Amino acid sequence: xxxxxxCAREALVYLPEGEERPKAAVEVAERWARDEADEAxxxxxxxxxxxxxxxxxxxSVTAAAGAALAAVRAVASPEDASMAASAAxxxxxxxxxxxxxxxxxxxxxxxxxxxxxxxxxxxxx
Length: 125
Description:
With 125 residues, the chain is mainly α. It contains six helices and no strands.
């Protein structure tokens, strides 16, 4: 959950100034992870960020909202958590010019991988 939130936060830079709904949704998911919010509050935040995505003026904003949506939806459906990283990468790609696209993609992929390693421990047998 926290890895998804950290990845979603990487995409918030692609939102227009004053657009706070995706950030608020990520914050609700983070509060849920600390037992400070309930699933109903997360569901409400998901509905709000869905409206943000539907109203988005361009694909990078849509993807950034999608990253936040994946993080908050992961509360009820943990399998949605992985979508936060891919949506963050998509936001970076849509925002970058063609010449910078691969650099932006590599940066977001590496940063999100670091977030996952920080929050998810895996022991291989």
